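Before the break, one more example. Copy the sequence into your notebook; we will annotate it together after we see the structure.
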Amino acid sequence: MAYLVLARKYRPQRFEDVVKQDHITKALSNALTSGRLAHAILLSGPRGTGKTTIARILAKCVNCESGPTATPCNTCSSCLEITSGHAADVFEIDGASNNKVDNIREIRENAHYMPAHSPYKIYIIDEVHMLSDSAFNALLKILEEPPSHVKFFFATTEPNKIPITILSRCQRHDCRRVDIDAIIDHMAHLCQQEAIDISREALTIIGREADGSIRDALSLLDLVITSVSGPIGMEQIMDVLGGLDRQSLFEMSQAVFDRDAGKVIDIIDRLYDRGQHMVKLFSEFIEHFRNLLVVKLGGGPRILTNVPEFEQQAMHEQIREIPKIRINQILDQLFKEETSVRFSAQPRLAMEMAFFRILQMPPAVSIDTLIEKMDAFRKGFSEASAHVNSPGTVQKEYSGESELQKSAFNSAPAIPAIPTNISPGASPSSQPDIPVSKISEKDQPGYSTPGSEKKTSPGEEKEPDAVKESGPQKPFSSTPETDSATADPDEPAALSWKNILAVMALEQPSLKSCFSESTARKPAPDALDIAFTATQFNINFAQKPGNLDLLQSICNRYFGKEIKISFSPRLLETNTSRMKKKEARLLETEALSHPVVEEAMKLFNGKIVEIKLLQEA
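Here is what the structure looks like once it is written out:
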């Protein structure tokens, strides 16, 4: 007798023998038992999952001499003829080669004749989606109202290509991919019956290559059995199939977690020498890291892809100390690199570069960790601000001060405190320059900050003559009381305005930048007229209620009385586009040097990629 391959020799002859399609076999058994079997049944699903096999078993159930029954006897003439493929009343048609309208017309004409010696005339059309549109149209009428002695059983791998008019006339059952453990168990059972000595690890390689198809698994097993004499292990399987051993997958994932570039190169080189296809190998790595992520997230064995039970524990051990965000980061990068590997002229080099980029990625930080760090930073920043603004505290160093604030503060003339031992004839230039400290408006009635004497170097810029003539000033308070005023009644407006800007730079840097090119004059003792660059942005920003209140408060404290503030925007000296660019540069500088931005960059080890200016409404 001629040799039969395992897929044919051990083809299921009863519903109980079908591997992992219980949802279909149970439904059809119930339909047969209750006498409610549909006249047209469509079986769809991946290749090698039992569609045609189920259709043949169903034909035996219908035409068995003891039937219709859910358990055919497989001994009567009808069952034996169907098993051998010679039944007179069961027509198995290949839809790919009989796809013309004439073929369907012939079926339609012959269907009206009674079966030869069976209860039903059965048409099994495999790959029914290959029929032409005309053939489907010819099939419609008889499929909707067939003779009582006719049954149609269709099988297809692509049900989406079947017209909806055909689908609506059929009872559809979808076959599922068979999980790897079921494939391994089925092959182990057949090998035991065939007296084949093969390890379970070797069967695992075959099961992975089968990709959920029982027929493919048995075909590969046949190939291995005929190629190897004696016991079959991992080495023999790798020589015959050239598949990827599981140990290499675990070694690669561990090398990536350890950021070991040398080990990664060694593994790729070893697999390349073994004849592995680089594109397929890269897909295997993606699938492996996907399974690791599923295990880390607590997914059950059912949703793992081609992972036998004995490997799941090894996965748990490997990722025990690896955060899930790291695995997700690696998997995401692998997907991004897949296209470059797939379409590269040198896929091996593309794969190596892809893993180099993965190894160089900085560790990912989870959202929870970021939020915790931001909360800690915000808390520390608030505590520092509260300490600075506490009563009686003299701030010697403002840690949150940006570089722009410091430069603005250092460039502005300091407000000197009144010395107790000043002589009437002393010149203001001989007095020490005292830096202005940040003022707490609520708690401090006045302030004066001590400072070390600072002599003017020959290279330093001198003050204007009007400023030189002005006398020393007193520290100003938060309330407009005349006897606590800082400004001298005869102090030039230019000096007063520079001192006010110095304080403004500490209290609100963005407002100070608005007046960076401004001047001031005193039209009256209790009035201050401010002229600044007349851009719409400056005008709108300065006149915001909060900004205007702050400016009013600083002026009142400085002059020690209620000051009437007016604005006189001066004409632009340059064109509008240049001023807008300058404005944008100022805002970008402010943003870059803002203390919160600086601290965030330091906290997250980041960098500024782009600064977008909000457009005015």
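Residues 367-388 form the longest helix (22 residues). The chain has four domains: 6-174, 180-241, 246-360, 403-419+430-452+464-574. Try to locate both features in your own notes.
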